[in-house]
Amino acid sequence: LAGTVPEEPRCTVERAxxxxxxxxxxxxxxxxxxxxxxxxxxxxxxxxxCTREKLLAAFGPFPVRLSTANTYSYRKVDVPFxxxxxxxxxxxxxxxxxxxTLYFFGDNNFTEWGPxxxxxxxxxFRIPGTxxxxxxxxxGSGSGVPFHxxxxxxxxxxxxxxxxxxxxxxxxxxxxPNETTLAWLQHTYPTLPPAQRPLECTxxxxxxxxxxxxxxxxxxxxxxxVFISTFLG
Length: 233
Known about the structure:
Layout: E1 15-16, H1 22-28, E2 35-38, H2 44-48, H3 52-59, E3 63-68, E4 76-80, H4 81-88, E5 102-105, H5 110-117, E6 132-139, E7 153-159, E8 162-167, H6 181-187, E9 199-203, E10 207-211, E11 216-221, E12 225-232
Parallel strand pairs: 1-2
Antiparallel strand pairs: 2-10, 3-4, 3-5, 5-6, 6-12, 7-10, 7-12, 8-9, 8-11
Domain JmjC: 99-233
Protein name: JMJD8 protein
InterPro entries: Cupin_8, JmjC_dom, JMJD6_ArgDemeth/LysHydrox
């Protein structure tokens, strides 16, 4: 479903194609800067399993754990996946706080969702000393997670479009932890001088974003979106 959030055509995150080697990835990006990787995986088979009909048929009655869409997402709510899709998967209310918005991302039951993840082809690069963990999500247009940071990882869009905003670890963004990314984009982003704006780009299906350790990042789904991250812990 098309969202009401316009796409920003400008992209300030570096891009690399399938010709990038593992040694170049480690040297140039792994520990220093984000990068958008194109053509490094083919997840058409996984995408075919992630349509609304296929997901509801496979997981409709199973519970999913929702988090609040704020920086410190401590509150969790369990609902059947069918109920989430029917009643909660909708555009973000601009007036609603992130602490009052429920978001399906990250808390996957790997016993139930494991068979789906077996079909996902992860990015071919790893950070030495880390192991990957998947985090799968589905959310409505205008939704997203405000600024936060954690370890390094990859994020791929399966359906929809997702806009990313990123700051390096030493540049703390100005934001309120209970404000949604949509509200931040509408109220704070326009006031930022060019030198204080984040790196940003919109990811489309099949594109993979890598972000290094401790980089601040916020996300905004421009459409009803399906996405999966590979966290390197």
